[in-house]
Amino acid sequence: MSALFFKRFLQKPFQIASIIPSSKALVERVAGKMDFKQPRIIAEYGPGEGVHSRELASRMDAHSRLFLFELDPAFSRDLERQFADDPRVTVINRDAASLSEELTQRGIPQCDYILSGIPFSILEIRKKRALLQDTYDALKGGGAFIIYQVTNELRQHATFFDRAESEYCLQNIPPMFVTVFQKASTRNGHARTTQLLRTVSANGAK
User: Fold this and answer.
1) Which helix (H) or strand (E) element contains residue 6?
2) Contacts for 4-8 with beta carbons within 8 Å, 24 or more apart?
3) Structurally, how many domains does the chain consist of?
4) Which of 73, 104, 108, 72 minimizes the C-alpha distance to 88?
C-alpha cells in the first residue's frame, strides 16, 4: 500500500472507501471483463493511486485512450506523474459527471468501457441516478460499465442498462462485487470508434 493512499483514506474515508488499494486478483478480474483486441476508448471514475489504471494501460494498444477522472487533487497529481510519458492516458481533475463534456471537447462521441470504483452507495439518490444516466449515454452501443463495489445495491438503480452480470471477488480486502452493465449493440459502432481513435492518435491529441 502506498503512503499516499493511506494518508488520503485517513483524511477522506468516505470518499476513498477502502483502506488499501485493490488486490492483484481484483485488478486482473476487472480488466478481464474488457476486450483489448481493438483500439478502445476507456474512462475510469475515481482511479485513486492508479492500480487499475496501470493494468488497463498495460493491456491497451497504441491507438487506445484512457481518461482518468480523479477528484482528489493529491491523487490527480500523482497520476499525472505516473503517466507523464504515456500520451494515451489523460488525467482529469474533475467530477465523473463531467465525462460527456470532456469527451465532447476532444471530439470523442462515446466510450467503449467505463470503469468505476467510487462508492456509489454513499451518493445521494438523485446524483447517483443522474451519474448512471450520464454513464449510459456516454457508452457506445455494445459498450459496458464495469464497477467493483462492497455492496451490490447499484443494480436496483441501473435498470436502464440492457443486461447486468455480477460476481463476487473474495480475493480482496474487503471482498468486492464486480458487476458488468451492458449497453445493447448498434451497427457500425466499432468502425467509427477505430477510425476516430486513429485520427486522434495521428493528431497527437491528449
Assistant:
1) helix 3-11
2) 4/49, 4/74, 4/75, 4/78, 5/48, 5/49, 7/74, 8/48, 8/72, 8/74, 8/75
3) 1
4) 108
Q: Which domain holds residue 159?
A: 23-80+98-203
Yes or no: say if 139 and 170 are a contact pair by the CB < 8 Å rule: no
How far apart CA 135 and CA 144 sit, in angstroms, is 10
pLDDT in tens, 14-42: 444 454 689 999 999 999 999 999 999 99
Helix, strand or coil, per DSSP, at residue 47: coil
Is 45 contained in some domain?
Answer: yes
DSSP per-residue codes, 114-176: EEE-S-GGGS-HHHHHHHHHHHHHHEEEEEEEEEEESS-GGGGT-TTSSEEEEEEE-SSSS-E
pTM of the model: 0.83
- Give the CATH number of the domain where residue 106 resides: 3.40.50.150
Nearest to 178 by CA among 147, 145, 132: 147
CA 166 to the chain's CA centroid = 17
DSSP 8-state class, residue 94: S
Bridge partners, 181 (sequence order): 145, 164
